[in-house]
Structure formats: C-alpha cells, structure tokens
Design goal:
Layout (H helix, E strand, L loop, with lengths): L9 E5 L5 H12 L2 E5 L2 H11 L5 E5 L7 H11 L5 E5 L4 H9 L2 E6 L4 H14 L2 H11 L3 H19 L1 E10 L5 E10 L7 H11 L2 H16 L7 E6 L23 E5 L11 H10 L3 E7 L5 H8 L3 E4 L1 H4 L6 H16 L3 E4 L5 H7 L5 E3 L17
Parallel strand pairs: 1-2, 1-3, 3-4, 4-5, 7-8, 8-9, 9-10, 10-11, 11-12, 12-13
Antiparallel strand pairs: 6-7, 6-13
C-alpha cells in the first residue's frame, strides 16, 4: 500500500496523558501530518508562539492541570486568531461544548473516539484555516529538490485518483414512510493513498485543483441521473471554491439539464467567507433550477452562519447529534430545537447517520428525511429508471 502523502501540514497535539499523545501522533502521522507534541497547556501555547504561523491545527485535551483546554483556546486566540483548535474531552457536557464553540473551537471530540473521527476532524479543521495558506506552503515545498519531488508525487497521485474515481450512492428516505426520496452521491477512488474523501479534497485544495475535482464529480453524477428513477433526486457535494468556477453556471455543467432533480450540498462551509459574491453566485444556481443544502449542522461554528448566508432548501443535521439520540435527552432537545428552527426558516431537515429503529422512531416526529445505514450503505450500483 502506498503511504499517505507527506507535507499535508503540521498539527500540534497537547495532552497531559502520556499514552494519549503518542496515540494521536500515530493516527495523524499515518494520515500524512507532521505532528509535534506538548504535555500541558502552557507548553502548547509556547509551541504556538514558536511556530510563528507554521501550524495548521491544534488538538488539545480539555482537562489538564494548570492551563486547561478552554484557557488554551483563549491564549491561542491572542497569538493567532485564525488557527483552528479541536478539543478532546473524556467528560463531554453541553455547557462545555457551548463554551468551546464560543471561544472558536472547530470541533469537540468525546473520548474515546475512533481514529477515523480524529483524522477527519483535523483534516476539516485544517482546511478551514485557509486554502491560501495551504497553497503558499505547497509552493514553499518546491524550493528544494526533495520537496519538489514530493510535490510532483502528490500531483501524480491526485491525477491517478481522478482517473480511478467512481461514485457510490446512499439512499435518503422520507421520515414518515421510509419511501425513497433521493440518493447522496459520494466520491470514491482506487488510488489507495487518497481513498479517504477528506484526504482527496484536501489535496485538491492544496494543489489548486478543486474545480477539476468538482467537474469530474458532476460528470459522473449526470451519468447516474440518466439511470435513476425520474422521481428520485440526487444530492451532490459542492465545495465552496467551486462557486468560483464559471463552468458551474453554464451548459458545460452536465447537471444543468437535470437541475430540478439536483440538490447541491455545500461542504466545508467555513470556507464560504473566502468566496466573493457568494449570495449572487448562489442566486445564479437557483435561477438554473438547483436547490441548495448545507451539511453537518451542529458540527463546529459555521452552521448557523450558513443558514443565514445561504437560506438553504435543505439542512443536514450532523450525525454526531443523531448517534445514540434515543439514549441522550440532551441530544434529543438539541435536535428538536434545531429541526424546529430549520423548518420555521423553510428548510427540509435531513438526519444523517441513522442506524437503529430507536433513532428513527424519535427522529420521525422532528425531521423530514432520514439517511444512514439503517436504510442502506453507500453502494456503487443504482436501480434502473424503471425500478420502483
């Protein structure tokens, strides 16, 4: 198996637990990050100061002696008000999550967590730090023969990934009847070093090839619509940077002829603020017949701002809120309140990550659509146009 791309960025991990630090480092190093460690909050702040802007993300425990995670957040903001911070805690509480978000944490992970959850949180957080900075670092890598070779290797892998791509499709059903309403199209690739979608997207950002990736996805999605039943819709992920691709708004976009059946799902919403004339571009998409959705409402700080900026026709609740909702009164209150707000604003509400009948039973009274393994895993094959 090919190793993960090197020079994906630099991450600082802060934790007073001597077992947790190397565990996080091993997980993130496998993903291609350069990882540095600190064993308490003050040492972490010192590392941030010494880095002089050379960090892409900070991962910190909350409960540490001396300067805890919330104090660290405040101190980091004084040094670098854009550096994303992911907090980890073994004692997750709603008031702690609220405090974390108020101080600018982009994610709040409850221990223990799966390696994939940490990797995905860091990848998303680092990308929210700014594509411009990532590209600047990528250009800096080409200053030496060693780094130039690594940059070329990253380009090669990305090109291979595009050529070896395919889409899988996960069903979205109506909450009341479980009748099929739509599919979400999700990209996959045979390039083993970029099989994680967040890695593939991150490399596209770093190389300045997001438009190329988006065009490839739209071509494959248009092919799928030709065999989908005519009353079934398709959710297609749209990176905010694609709003700067003029081809998106012309007949060269193969989805335009199917626009009335397509919901463009805006991902990586923290980057919306980097796109000029976002409202005008979103309006152009609606003029073509597309509907807009935002994903992962309830994850990080970008969600409510997106509701106001995009006024989406559909909203997806973060699966972290949905998971085990039948056993959490706090999650039930949050989801009920968020779903009521979205419906009041005129948005369909989709609950992602539904895996049990108990979760479905509660959510059916609050949301419009359901998505998750309970109704089907992402699969490559789709039913023919004549299928029910």
């Amino acid at each position: 198996m090919n190793p993960a791309p090197r020079h994906f960025g630099k991450v600082l991990v802060i934790d007073d637990d001597p077992a947790m630090r190397p565990t996080c480092r091993a997980i993130l190093t496998r993903e291609g990050w350069d990882v540095v460690l600190a064993d308490d909050g003050q040492a972490g702040v010192d590392q941030v100061r010494a880095a002089r802007g050379d960090l892409d993300c900070v991962v910190s425990d909350v409960n540490m002696p001396g300067l805890d995670g919330f104090g660290l957040l405040r101190a980091v903001r004084e040094v670098d008000d854009e550096l994303p911070v992911v907090l980890m805690t073994g004692d997750p509480k709603l008031d702690g999550a609220i405090e974390a978000i108020e101080h600018g944490a982009v994610n709040y992970l409850a221990k223990p967590f799966a390696a994939e959850r940490l990797a995905a949180a860091v990848a998303r957080a680092a990308r929210s730090h700014g594509v411009t900075r990532m590209r600047r670092r990528a250009r800096a890598f080409t200053g030496s023969p060693e780094h130039a070779a690594e940059h070329l290797e990253l380009e090669r892998r990305f090109t291979t990934a595009l050529a070896a791509r395919w889409l899988v499709f996960q069903p979205i059903v109506r909450a009341g009847s479980s009748a099929r309403y739509a599919y979400e199209a999700l990209i996959r690739t045979g390039e083993v070093s970029l099989q994680r979608p967040d890695l593939l997207i991150g490399v596209a950002e770093r190389l300045g090839r997001v438009h190329e990736l988006g065009r490839a996805v739209r071509r494959s999605a248009a092919d799928a619509l030709a065999i989908l039943p005519p009353d079934v819709h398709l959710f297609v992920n749209l990176h905010p940077l694609e709003l700067g691709d003029e081809e998106l708004f012309t007949d060269a976009n193969p989805l335009v002829e199917h626009a009335h059946r397509v919901v463009l799902e805006l991902t990586e919403r923290a980057q919306l603020e980097t796109i000029s004339e976002t409202p005008r571009r979103v309006a152009r998409l609606r003029e073509l017949g597309f509907r807009l959705a935002i994903d992962d409402l309830g994850a990080g700080y970008a969600g409510l701002g997106s509701l106001a900026a995009i006024e989406p026709e559909a909203v997806k609740l973060d699966m972290g809120l949905v998971r085990d909702i039948s056993h959490s009164a706090t999650r039930r209150r949050i989801v009920a309140a968020m779903a009521a707000l979205c419906r009041e604003l005129g948005s369909q509400v989709v609950a992602e990550g539904v895996e049990t009948a108990e979760e479905r039973a509660f959510l059916t009274g609050h949301v419009d659509l359901l998505q998750g393994y309970l109704f089907g895993r992402p699969e490559r094959l789709l039913p023919s146009a004549g299928a029910a």
